[in-house]
Automatic annotation (TrEMBL):
<dbReference type="Pfam" id="PF01683">
    <property type="entry name" value="EB"/>
</dbReference>
<feature type="signal peptide">
    <location>
        <begin position="1"/>
        <end position="17"/>
    </location>
</feature>
<keyword id="KW-0732">Signal</keyword>
<feature type="domain" description="EB">
    <location>
        <begin position="98"/>
        <end position="153"/>
    </location>
</feature>
<dbReference type="InterPro" id="IPR006149">
    <property type="entry name" value="EB_dom"/>
</dbReference>
<protein>
    <submittedName>
        <fullName>Teneurin-1-like</fullName>
    </submittedName>
</protein>
<feature type="domain" description="EB">
    <location>
        <begin position="156"/>
        <end position="194"/>
    </location>
</feature>
Length: 322
């Protein structure tokens, strides 16, 4: 990139290119007829090119007033392009164009800079496309991506930061703690999504550890293979079992209480009316000291059918007796 001295010179040159000095031919005159084509006599003293013309060499031996030219228009000298498109334009193959290290924006040529390179104005920061929204700006003399964007591919483009659930192309795009890119931004292992803030928060690893949100305690609600949703909550700034749950197992997790006779999946769920530990037998809770005991829940159908069958036999016998 050019140094500051070059930039100051370029801006000074641009100002001159637009001023009357670049239109002054140097011819002495008393009337317009004393001046070359496309010029007039100013103050009966010297010739000046008309508006829209600049004084330059027409060929190797003659100078004259040449018509200013814009992008794609025919030209003879660079100055024809400079007067309309700035000093970073040139006359290439008899047509006005931006110099190889410049680009066209707002009908002018600006020296191109990518993210991290020096700049003077926002228009220097060019990433190859003219979108509806500028993605790069000149901040304190350097090209910088706009807020919530970050640079990629050696500063040649800016990528919008992605939040939880949005598509991403790499880890850097996922903005926020605990995020990773797996096609979309997702929470890392041992982190969990908090829907209200649309962010990831770290899971709490043990009961009574500090927390902010209930969702941080979810990993303590049952186990991975047998969840007990809502059994662990963030109460008073620490993960604690809910009022309808109790702590059980090693290490301790929270389980919703299941009383004798209620359906269950794990022993840890089962407690007696006196909160004594129970166990899960054939999908129902029981305990050694419970009443009724385990036999009443282990084979309920078998123990219920005989009384009904005996009653039916006695009823038939009574009818036959009469």
């Amino acid at each position: 990139m050019a140094g500051w001295g070059l930039w100051i010179f370029a801006l000074f040159g641009l100002a001159l290119a637009q001023g009357p000095e670049k239109r002054r031919t140097g011819n002495v005159c008393h009337a317009d007829m004393d001046c070359p084509d496309n010029a007039f006599c100013r103050q009966s003293s010297y010739c000046v090119c008309k508006d829209g013309f600049v004084y330059a060499a027409v060929n190797s031996t003659h100078k004259g007033c040449l018509k200013e030219a814009r992008m794609g228009e025919e030209c003879v000298q660079h100055i024809q392009c400079h007067s309309t498109m700035g000093v970073h334009s040139e006359c290439a193959d008899s047509v006005c164009a931006c110099a190889p290290n410049a680009h066209l924006e707002d009908d002018r040529c600006y020296e191109t800079a990518v993210i991290g390179e020096r700049c003077v104005v926002d228009q220097n920061c060019f990433l190859g496309e003219h979108g509806t929204e500028r993605q790069a700006f000149c901040v304190r003399g350097y090209c910088t991506c706009q807020l919530q964007y970050s640079p990629r591919d050696n500063g040649t483009r800016c990528v919008r930061d992605a939040t939880l659930g949005e598509e991403c192309e790499d880890e850097l795009q996922c903005a926020g703690a605990g995020l990773q890119c797996r096609g979309t931004c997702r929470c890392r292992d041992n982190w969990v999504a908090h829907q209200e803030t649309n962010s990831c928060v770290e899971s709490v690893k043990a009961l009574n550890d500090p927390c902010v949100y209930d969702v941080q305690c979810d990993s303590l609600s049952g186990t991975k293979d047998a969840r007990s949703p809502g059994a662990a909550l963030c109460l008073g700034g620490a993960c604690t079992c809910a009022y309808s749950a109790h702590a059980a197992g090693t290490p301790q997790h929270c389980w919703h209480r299941r009383r004798p006779g209620q359906e269950c999946r794990r022993d840890e769920e089962c407690v007696s009316e006196e909160d004594e530990p129970g166990y899960c037998l054939s999908g129902r809770c029981t305990c050694k000291t419970c009443s009724p005991d385990a036999r009443d829940f282990g084979s309920g159908a078998a123990t219920i059918r005989p009384p009904y069958l005996a009653t039916a036999v006695l009823f038939v016998a009574a009818i036959l007796r009469h």
